[in-house]
């Protein structure tokens, strides 16, 4: 019986050494952030309660979803949506009209609110038309489109003093060609923030 016990002890020791060797470091060093994660990586960590932490910026600080209330989450989501709408700066028009499309209205309202909140911010509205029609007609059409966007922004909170309008008519096409696709992309107003 003593023989079996010595073999079991030897096996247990061998297993322990194998376990320790398997868990030992490889010699690589990583700068950790205090939570066991490499602070230089963009990997999101999961905390003990199951919430995730999003790291942003150089300082490594972030926001943990397990700490945010539902109201704070909704506010953060709304802010992200507003920021996405502010990134839309080109608005398209149907043929021979200056009527603002329904799908453009939310983004334009977001721009108007931004201008209202930032009274020193200036924006130039550049009106464009496709190549159909005379140069004079297209300049006038580009102007009507830019003025329509200006009126919409002012009605929704922007100041007229923040807005400059200019028409390029057909002179600055974004796409060259005589297809309906090219025409549709050239019938536009671009917001240029200064």
Q: Spans with pLDDT under 50 lasting ≥5 residues?
A: 28-53
Strand order of the largest sheet: 4-7-5-6
Work out the radius of gyration. 31 Å
**What is the name of the CATH class of the domain at 90-193?**
Alpha Beta
Sum up the overall morphology in one term.
Answer: globular
Membrane topology: Lipid-anchor
Keywords: Cell cycle, Cell division, Cell outer membrane, Lipoprotein, Membrane, Palmitate, Signal
Pfam family, one: OmpA
Signal peptide: 1-21
Provide the fold topology.
Layout: H1 2-23, E1 45-46, E2 52-55, E3 62-64, H2 70-86, E4 90-92, H3 105-117, E5 123-128, H4 135-155, E6 163-169, H5 180-186, E7 188-193
Parallel strand pairs: 5-6
Antiparallel strand pairs: 1-2, 2-3, 4-7, 5-7
Question: Could you please describe the fold and organization of this structure?
Answer:
- The protein is of the alpha+beta class and 194 residues long.
- The protein has a domain at 90-193: 2-Layer Sandwich (60s Ribosomal Protein L30, Chain: A), CATH 3.30.1330.
- Helices cover 41% and strands 16% of the residues.
- It contains five helices and seven strands; from the N terminus they run αβββαβαβαβαβ.
- It has helices spanning 2-23, 70-86, 105-117, 135-155, 180-186; strands at residues 45-46, 52-55, 62-64, 90-92, 123-128, 163-169, 188-193.
- The strands form two sheets. Strands 4-7-5-6 form a four-stranded mixed β-sheet. Strands 1-2-3 form a three-stranded antiparallel β-sheet, with no helix packed on it.
- Helix 3 packs across helix 4 (135-155).
- The longest helix is centred in the first third of the chain and has 22 residues, at 2-23.
- It is globular.
């Amino acid at each position: 019986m003593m023989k079996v016990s010595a073999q079991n002890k030897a096996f247990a020791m061998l297993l322990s050494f194998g376990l320790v060797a398997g868990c030992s470091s490889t010699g690589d060093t990583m700068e950790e952030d205090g939570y066991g994660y490499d602070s230089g990586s963009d990997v999101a960590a999961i905390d003990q309660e199951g919430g995730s932490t999003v790291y942003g910026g150089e300082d490594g600080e972030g926001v943990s979803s397990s700490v945010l209330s539902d109201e704070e989450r909704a506010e953060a989501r709304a802010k992200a949506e507003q920021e996405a709408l502010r990134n839309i700066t080109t608005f398209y028009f149907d043929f021979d009209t200056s009527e603002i499309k329904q799908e453009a209205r939310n983004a334009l309202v977001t721009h108007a609110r931004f201008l209202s909140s930032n009274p020193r911010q200036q924006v130039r509205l550049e009106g464009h038309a496709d190549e159909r029609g005379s140069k004079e007609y297209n300049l006038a059409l580009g102007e009507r489109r830019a003025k329509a966007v200006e009126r919409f922004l002012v009605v929704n909170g922007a100041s007229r003093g923040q807005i400059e309008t200019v028409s390029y008519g057909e002179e600055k096409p974004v796409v060259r060609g005589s297809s309906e696709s090219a025409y549709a992309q050239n019938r536009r107003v671009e917001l240029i923030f200064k």
